Here is the input.
Amino acid sequence: MSSGNPETRKRILDAAWHLLEKRRGQEVRLDDIAKAAKVSRQAVYLHFGSRAELLVATVRHVDEVLGLEQRLKKISEATTRSGADVLDALVEFWGNYIPEVYGLAKALLAVYDTDRDAAAAWDDRMAALQQGCRQAIGCLIRDQALAPGWNPDEASQLMWSLLSIAVWENLTVQRGWSTAQYIRQMQKVMRRAFVKAK
Here is the structure.
């Protein structure tokens, strides 16, 4: 929908981001976001049309602020190299990115089952990660390097599951792994699972 002043739009998105993290996704209403952004509720609707559209726009705004597009260039550049290099690039990107979006991710996940708008925002971002996993598996297939026994859908689905926030959280938050350790070990796991032995 997006119309109106770009500065107001950014203020609304920043307010939504801040409130989602602060309240862990609980009871973040349009009125609250409007108040935090110092705009009317009508202004929020002018820019976004619905709460679902606002939440999806918020997670995309976070990606923009954190330079997601630039970071993903490494993965798209890696597609000219081996499929194993693409796997490594994807894991490195994701392992470095999760800590930066963890607060927002936790907020959306906390209300996923009860807030369809938050679920839509989360599903939007997970679709992007799934696409990255399909791309990595596609590069292995291109190189004829996908390990035997996998079909592309199952391989990309398992890869996506291994890269879940829950797995990252278990290893880093619960078990104290560093980001570097998480990346290094997940790269090994991905190669062992999906790359054909030479």
